[in-house]
Design brief:
Number of helices: 15
CATH topology of the largest domain: pyruvate-formate lyase- activating enzyme
Strand content: 15-25%
Number of strands: 22
CATH class of the largest domain: Alpha Beta
Structural class: alpha/beta
Shape: globular
Number of domains: 3
Radius of gyration: 22 Å
CATH architecture of the largest domain: Alpha-Beta Horseshoe
Bound molecules: S-adenosyl-L-homocysteine, iron/sulfur cluster, FE3-S4 cluster
Length: about 475
């Protein structure tokens, strides 16, 4: 019985959680593949699609790359550091080829798309380069590579959503799953490589999304996260006479209706696109989690304009007010870039103050890393010295620490409905779960007959670092 595991290595950004193994596979496979994923949740989700395509084609998964016939690295290009991490990893894999000359090494994902066949010249040990829209062609490419050719497919598509492919859940805890609802991005944030690596935005068939969520629920999953680079611009049009259009708010509602016991999350929202309709839908359904990831990037209108984010500081603040007016208990998180081109101390202070106003519970914080080919790389000079970028980033991180701590203190004495995800890391006498607001809660099992996937009402009495501590209330 093959072990289906993906090794989850992330760049310094968020996304993707620690997983535990899951999947029982009755089929026996002639060959084995190993897959490692970097970058955002979309990439982790894509690896599950790749696993499904490979399984259909006689490959079983292994968590031991030394025994794999095919080693795949699903890569990220978002910052230079993310690419360096992958190059280092490829270097580590060099010895594999010496021990097992027949093994194939493939690079998937955003770095494959960005560098294309250049990657084969730069990294001699790579046999396959496959972009995010070309995974269906993997079996043919593997054959080509087995015949000694270097195999490349980096064609981007306007239609591909892999809607009909049932992802093989890799390293899942059996409770939380990612469900991809759209691909690509039509925004042109000037710093961002994603529109180049992922292509045009397209939405996946709503019925296939709802069915996937229903199937997950039937299998015991209790939380789905609907994924896209810009989920609020989700738009599905059946395209036939009497056509039915599904907006993101409507999709959210359909998924929430799968079961009140299924929690629904989504990521990522672009502040310019999140609508009142979405906010009211969230407020109406208890099982749509009260948590919005609403990346601000910068608090300065001038920098936001250079970033081509298409909103101003005031517009963002009004959106935060709107969210809090409709859902006072909604938590917020953000992505922030320190030291974008021309950023002054005053711009930086604007970022710190917008964080404070928004009261983020979490943020994912980076310093600006110029990406070749992007609008910013072509138009602006990356002119903030590295030590200044790092100092500003430190100040942003310290601000976030303060905000997270204050937010946790506000939770003391409150009671939350917690979805149990498993044993706490430190002790199997304690459960670990999350609130609707995405906060981690650890609490004693204390003789209550509960299981992973159950909900518990927990009163918070303490907190350490990023974790709330509490006790089950009757
Ligand atoms: N689609 C999402 C973000 C995807 S990338 C959104 O629009 O919010 C995740 C985060 O990486 C971005 O929000 C941004 O904060 C950061 N990022 C993207 N390009 C970057 C760059 N060139 N340098 C530093 N951080 C970057
Ligand atoms: Fe990049 Fe902007 Fe698209 Fe997000 S919305 S993926 S930051 S271009
Ligand atoms: Fe990275 Fe590509 Fe995601 S660049 S952040 S893996 S879309």
């Amino acid at each position: 019985m093959p072990d289906l595991i993906t090794h989850t290595k992330q760049d310094e950004s968020r996304q993707g959680e620690a997983y535990a193994p899951f999947v029982n596979d009755p089929v026996s496979y002639g060959k084995k593949f190993y897959i490692e994923s970097y970058g955002c949740a979309m990439n982790f989700s894509d690896s599950e699609i790749v696993a499904s395509i490979l399984q259909e084609n006689g490959f079983g998964a292994t968590r031991n790359y030394a025994e794999a016939d095919l080693i795949l690295i699903n890569t990220c290009s978002i910052r230079e550091k993310a690419e360096q991490t992958v190059r280092k990893r490829l270097n580590d894999l060099r010895t594999i080829k010496e021990d097992k000359p027949g093994a194939l090494i493939g690079v998937l994902g955003c770095m494959a798309e960005r560098l294309k066949s250049k990657l084969l010249e730069e990294e001699k040990l790579v046999d396959l380069v496959v972009g995010p829209d070309a995974y269906r062609t993997l079996p043919g490419l593997i054959e080509e590579a087995n015949d000694g050719q270097k195999a490349v497919n980096v064609l981007l598509s306007r239609e591909e959503t892999y809607a009909d492919i049932s992802p093989v859940r890799l390293n899942s805890n059996g409770i939380n799953a990612f469900v991809s609802i759209m691909r690509g991005c039509n925004n042109m944030c000037s710093f961002c490589v994603v529109p180049f690596t992922r292509g045009r935005e397209r939405s996946r068939d709503a019925d296939s999304i709802v069915k996937e969520c229903q199937d997950l629920f039937n299998q015991g999953f209790r939380e789905v996260t609907l994924l896209g680079q810009n989920v609020d611009s989700y738009y599905w049009n059946t395209g036939v006479n009497g056509e039915i259009v599904v907006t993101f708010a409507q999709l959210l509602e359909r998924v929430a209706q799968v079961s009140p016991l299924l929690r629904v999350r989504f990521s990522t929202s672009h502040p310019k696109d999140i609508t009142d309709d979405v906010l009211h839908t969230m407020a109406r359904y208890e099982n749509i989690c009260k948590y919005i990831h609403l990346p601000v990037q910068s608090g300065s209108t001038r920098i936001l304009q250079l970033m081509n984010r298409t909103y101003t500081r005031e517009w963002y603040l009004a959106k935060v007010d709107r969210i809090k007016a409709i859902m006072p208990d909604c938590s917020l998180s953000s992505d922030i870039i320190a030291g974008f081109c021309t950023e002054t101390e005053e711009d930086h202070q604007d970022t710190l103050s917008i964080m404070e106003y928004s009261g983020y519970d979490y943020s994912y914080m980076f310093f600006y890393s110029e990406r070749p080919g992007t609008l910013a790389a072509r138009r602006y000079q990356d002119d903030i010295p590295e030590d200044v970028k790092k100092r500003r980033l430190d100040e942003i991180i310290n601000m976030q620490r303060k905000l997270s701590h204050e937010s946790n203190l506000k939770d003391l004495g409150k009671t939350f409905k917690v979805l149990i995800e498993g044993d706490s890391k430190k002790s199997d006498a304690d459960w670990m779960g999350r609130t609707s607001q995405y906060k981690v809660v650890v609490f004693p099992k204390a003789g209550h007959a509960l299981n992973k996937g159950d909900y518990a009402m927990v009163t918070i009495d303490d907190c350490t670092g990023g974790t709330l501590l509490g006790k089950i209330v009757q």
